[in-house]
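Notebook B, p. 112. Complex prediction, attempt 2.
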Amino acid sequence: TTAPNPPLPFKEPLDWVSRTRYCGELTPEDVGKRVRLCGWVARHRVHGGLTFLNLRDHTGIVQVTTLPHEYPDAHSIVNDLRLEYVVAVEGVVRSRPSDSVNKKMKTGFIEVAAEHVQVLNVVRSKLPFLVTTADDAKDSAKEEIRLRYRCLDLRRQEMNYNIYLRHKVVKLIRRYLEDVHGFVEIETPILSRSTPEGARDYLVPSRVQKADDTFSVMVFVLAKRLPGTFYALPQSPQLFKQMLMVSGFDKYYQIARCFRDEDLRADRQPEFTQLDIELAFTPLEDMLKLNEDLIRKVFLEIKGIQLPNPFPRLTYAEAMSRYGSDRPDTRFNLELNDVSDVFVESSFRIFADTLESGGIIKALRVPSGAKSYSNTALKKGDIFNEAIKSGAKGLPFLKVLDNGEVEGIAALASSLDPTKKEQLLTQCSAGPGDLILFAVGHPASVSKTLDRLRVFVAHELGLVDHSKHSILWVTEFPMFEWNDAEQRLEALHHPFTAPNPEDMEDLSSARALAYDMVYNGVEIGGGSLRIYKREVQQKVLEIVGISLEQAEAKFGYLLEALDMGAPPHVDTFSVAGGIAYGLDRLVMLLAGTNSIRDVIAFPKTTTAQCVLTKTPSEVDPQQLKELSIQTK
Amino acid sequence: TTAPNPPLPFKEPLDWVSRTRYCGELTPEDVGKRVRLCGWVARHRVHGGLTFLNLRDHTGIVQVTTLPHEYPDAHSIVNDLRLEYVVAVEGVVRSRPSDSVNKKMKTGFIEVAAEHVQVLNVVRSKLPFLVTTADDAKDSAKEEIRLRYRCLDLRRQEMNYNIYLRHKVVKLIRRYLEDVHGFVEIETPILSRSTPEGARDYLVPSRVQKADDTFSVMVFVLAKRLPGTFYALPQSPQLFKQMLMVSGFDKYYQIARCFRDEDLRADRQPEFTQLDIELAFTPLEDMLKLNEDLIRKVFLEIKGIQLPNPFPRLTYAEAMSRYGSDRPDTRFNLELNDVSDVFVESSFRIFADTLESGGIIKALRVPSGAKSYSNTALKKGDIFNEAIKSGAKGLPFLKVLDNGEVEGIAALASSLDPTKKEQLLTQCSAGPGDLILFAVGHPASVSKTLDRLRVFVAHELGLVDHSKHSILWVTEFPMFEWNDAEQRLEALHHPFTAPNPEDMEDLSSARALAYDMVYNGVEIGGGSLRIYKREVQQKVLEIVGISLEQAEAKFGYLLEALDMGAPPHVDTFSVAGGIAYGLDRLVMLLAGTNSIRDVIAFPKTTTAQCVLTKTPSEVDPQQLKELSIQTK
């Protein structure tokens, strides 16, 4: 951090105190006008006795040139500038000579001839990367360096665009909800309480507090338990928004910070932002339509993309059957086929055994895939590895030859007599040149494998039509799914989701009144109607292994609220329910970037650290003492 | 929680599925119209064979009446309703008979004649208080009960008004900043790092994370220190917003959640909401004007209050001298007078000794106060106790008699010869009937006592002109104040505040480029220009006892950023600086309530607990094990 150059002398205060324009907004219409700009030196070069300077502010870049004879002081200051110096420039806008017009640049037809220039601050460290060059070739700076020097990184045009895009999206959402539908934004607590939503909570130790006579009775009861107590950071405002419905706030929304202490994946953050919406007294169809209108408006106004009206819907059962996924990307077809009946009593033992033990066999036809994937690749290449990573034990496949015969896994091919072979090809709509991939076993694992292969193949073979936009609702999720590790049922959404009234006789296999919004294979929002009857709520909690006693202790207030006039009765087809969108992910998709970290100003890494501030960090032992906690 | 009544049978789904209007918005113009309403039973009475029902939704209340002969089913259902049942009503709006018009009620000229009524949900618990009655007599339900049953409490008209008011204020602020000035809202982290801002941090233990090869180098270094590391919840986004200025985002704002683990006072919350603003390249006067315009707009549009333009300004020195406070309430005059020179070599030893040991003597004249306070009250009553609570050892006083003589503390009165007496009365502008209160000692303790007495007297004697609105800037705060407990200087605002360039020779006594906005004696916002030079920043940190080494460890990233082009140079009179408003407090003042808890949907008590969710709470020992922490 020693100065590579001696700092420039600071000049006297400017005789003007205010900039008049922004760099990126100057156009040929401004030619002849005097402007005052502030910004950073984005490029600096000396060329034929003239010095050119690119000046950058948050709106963009403009070229500044000097007039050595008329304004020698300005020329001399500009000559001595370095990249990323902070400067103020006063001058006149003029057309560029035709040979230096840059049509790629928004301000490429004009330049500012500098008459007065003042250095506002210098750079005294060696820059870890060059802001403007890093823009041209994003990969020139590794992400860890970009995050470490986030101030420079955020000056890059791409990051600047992303942050403004995020703001634009949020602004649009707020105004739509407020102005068109009369929603009220209500803040809910961050220092909150653990709720049973699946992921691990972040905890905040409470200092021991003395009882306060203002709340004598209440506090006395609580105070006895205070040592060793914790707040939890909310995984979502779920219970609070349900309480708001009971409180009479019909149309609530919040741009809410949420927290999950998970082992992170590439596109997850320990803290993330959720667009949280809840309504009462609104018919379900109206609520879905409102959400469709909202998302259509966002895509149209932000990206000029016209999404369908209405959004297509798939039931969970249909999505799993056709795509092996509850968030299918329908920009490409590649549907799955259940071919179990072809292999009943097959001589190919793995298949026959699977069927006998209650499993299924499904096939994915890859059009013209026979030539795209060599037998070697299918037996030990990337595609084979994809199958293995999904949990499959192997990748059975067949190729359809030009003469209509099949080859591939020899024992599989030979197990098919001509009738069975015809049946298989018909069921898969497969013909000469096609490749058929199989997965066998329990429906869940078969789906997992073929979903993964389907997406892999589509991207690898360029079957994704990028001009298309796949958006749909997935509905009728099951209430519960089996958690094999814990050997119990758990809520597929969360245990406050209402069951379908038609399925009340056997709740454990009931469909939920839940819906996810899926864009290009990514879940961008998910919601449900809520349970409004105490006895149903208790039963659902029981199924996921939460006893009445535990429920009373953890969220007795919700159970109580259900008995004090919770709106409304689902049988009327009106809804007390809502939805939550992953805002970071939605903005990421709109920005066209692959990393959620590129749409968050100060994100954490995949190991939940902030490399800028070196967080988490050790703390003063005195702080831990005050909290009555020890680290092991 | 057992049912006081058997639940009513649920009817078939309504043949309409959507409400058409809100209760509170119906007017005589709607007479004759068919409406569909949903809401809660706010009042229910049987009167002369007719049943009247008040129906409440978030917009207000409307009276519903029945037509027993024409619509016997609706009549019968309404008859069986109970308070706070959730119902849907379809009927026709009609004028009330003139003898039942209620001019106090917004909808008091009309009623809805119910043709179809459906119960959407019932109440099965005994209600801890009655929503509508609690509205009429707020004190009928103690705050602990209101917080415990917050769902009911939030149905009260007053709370409903406050929550909507809060939303309206936030909406107005956002739009002003975005539309008039082009501000961008940027979210900063909640899982953050401890910064030296005075108050105690809430800590969040980090689970030990494995190194991830995506960030191999960086993480390897950090990973070694990870066990026993913590995030801190931010006390403000201060450093992040300074980083955003260095990143080129000129005009940033955020409605930001902040956290302080303090021993709470009545109007503090452990988590609170801050309107956070930062600008670069803007002249200081423009920034102050922008903030004045914002607050003027809020008061005008929300409350119809016209605040002055421009806001008056007081320097810190002047505020302390005239009012003994850096947040004076100027709705009443009652100014302080330094009368030290009257008592030089006085025979009244306490006063003379004080002066000899470097203290001062100040006086507060209470106009016509001689009759308002008996000598007994002044020697041991409430006003005396106020003085004692402020830290004073006693309350010296004099009363000016009709004949111009003084009496009170005898030794004090007798110590004044006629010249000195005249001098005193002249300096205090005191005349017959006035009371003069004294405080002696170090300037800080004198200010503390007289500030407290000034406010006490003004309220007790009705000297506060409630039609007035006192708003002003306090400027030129000192950079540092003495922390007697820790025997060191500490930053009066925070250690990133820029010193006045005129005072650079002795930083420890320098004035800061800081400003607070004060409304009716309450600080509603505070801000400063920021240090932009690394060497100044290091020097300030040194003065408050943070070594270079500690600074590098705790916020080296800020020091680094200052060397990479931090905007801009204060000598240009442009500003990189900002302000933060306590949003909860601002809304509380606008709502005209005395408790910050009345403008927060789910607040904590003064002991930092949520009595609704029983937070903080004990957690599963397994969670602590995963975090590698133990409670003692």
